[in-house]
Amino acid sequence: MITYSGIHHVSLTVRDLERAKAFYTKVLGLNEIERPPFDFAGAWYAVGEGGQQLHLIVHEGETLRQGEINTRDGHFAIRVGSYKEAIAWLDRQGVPYEARPFAKAGFPQIYVLDPDRNIIEFNAEQYDGE
């Protein structure tokens, strides 16, 4: 049997690394971390305090999606401390989102697209909005 200790990282493909880095660093506020000297372009980010990471990989292949937010499509989720604060931050940054404060999942969710149309879910333990 395999014993799991958590998710180490999620990798996303991007076409324009500088545009993606601007989004993840300046808009979402993630901290870029050191990345090994691979022979392809990319960037790594720390997510939270538990050692989880987000890896961006430049790729021109056909794995990139074209459509709008579809929550059944591949995505990754980041747990946030406050649903209300996440909504306020996204509003200040001008990031369009799909808000689901009373989602059927049992916790509030917010969905956004990055510049390469990767879907990101932000969710909170509970709804703390008004």
From TrEMBL:
Signal peptide: none
One Pfam family in the UniProt entry: Glyoxalase
Metal-binding found in the keyword field: yes
UniProt entry keywords in alphabetical sequence: Metal-binding
VOC domain segment(s): 6-125
Ion transport keyword on record: no
One term of GO molecular function: metal ion binding
Full protein name: Glyoxalase
Organism placement in taxonomy: Bacteria, Bacillati, Bacillota, Bacilli, Bacillales
